[in-house]
Amino acid sequence: MDREIINPLWHLHEELTIDQAASLVAGYDPELLDVCKNDTSFHGTFKGFMAARTAIANAFRLKKITGTVIPVYECDINGNIYGEVSDSIDPSESRVDVDSLKSWLIGRGFRTGFFFPKNEDTAIPGYLNPDHPRFAPKLAAAVHAWEAMEDENLLQGKSVKRAIEDWLTSRYKEFLLYHATKNETNGTNPGDINNSAISQAALVANWNPDGGAPKTPGK
Fold first, then answer.
1. What is the reported pLDDT for 63?
2. Alpha carbon distance 137, 215 (integer Å)
3. Burial 174-185 (b: 16+ CB within 10 A, else e)
4. Beta carbons of 142 and 157 less than 8 angstroms apart
């Protein structure tokens, strides 16, 4: 189905249930999904919702998104709770922190949709726009990597430089950090990862060049 207009009042929420967050990421108003949740055609109608819900729930389980976990409870035939399902998360009750969710989305390279509205204040700046005549891939990669480090899990057990390099290495094609031409001297072919470009971008994004214990973002 075509995406419906989402009520802008959802932007006021600092917490959302996993179901609500997944609905917004997939491009649907949570109120509409709640009304249609028992429809036999639900999964075919609201495409993308289940993929978003699973991804968010897994990130929540891995503590990459913060919030409040509510388990799935086991009930008897009368509806009385007598236990909880081990290692479970109830997506309709568990709540995620919206700022944490947005940081995780950015870290996954997801910067479009409801949580990233396009207007004069939030439009992609020229230096991040691939269509800009002065677009510089390494600069854009450095900025994206710096923003991704809001996810403190990426820094665990690593120096800032290593965390940034690892993040860029896993996304080198997305940020054009590869060789464009064949080079007989160093044996690289078009499309091969450009480790030098990654190092240069990481150098720009590294806010802790002197080493030591990395300072977490915002501290």
1. 83
2. 26
3. ebbbbbeeeeee
4. no
Question: What would the two tokens of residue 87 be?
Answer: 């290692």
Type of residue numbered 195 = N
Name the nearest CA neighbour of 15 among 71, 84, 69.
Answer: 69
The residue with tokens 């072919």 is 189
Contacts of 186 (CB under 8 A, 6+ apart): none
For 163-184, the pLDDT digits (tens) are: 999 999 998 988 889 998 988 8
- Give the N- to C-terminal CA distance of the chain in Å, as an integer: 44
Show Cβ contacts of residue 10 under 8 Å, excluding neighbours closer than 6 positions: 16, 20, 24, 29, 30, 114
Which residue in 149, 147, 204, 198 sits closest to 172, CA to CA? 198
Indicate whether this model's pTM tops 0.90. Answer: no
What is the distance between the alpha carbons of residues 169 and 167, in angstroms, rounded to a whole number?
Answer: 5
Burial (0-12, 13-18, 19+ Cβ within 10 Å), 38 = exposed
- Which residues, in sequence order, are CB contacts of 215 under 8 Å at separation 6+? 160, 207, 208
Helix ranges, the chain (H) = 18-26, 30-36, 42-45, 49-61, 98-107, 137-148, 160-169, 195-205
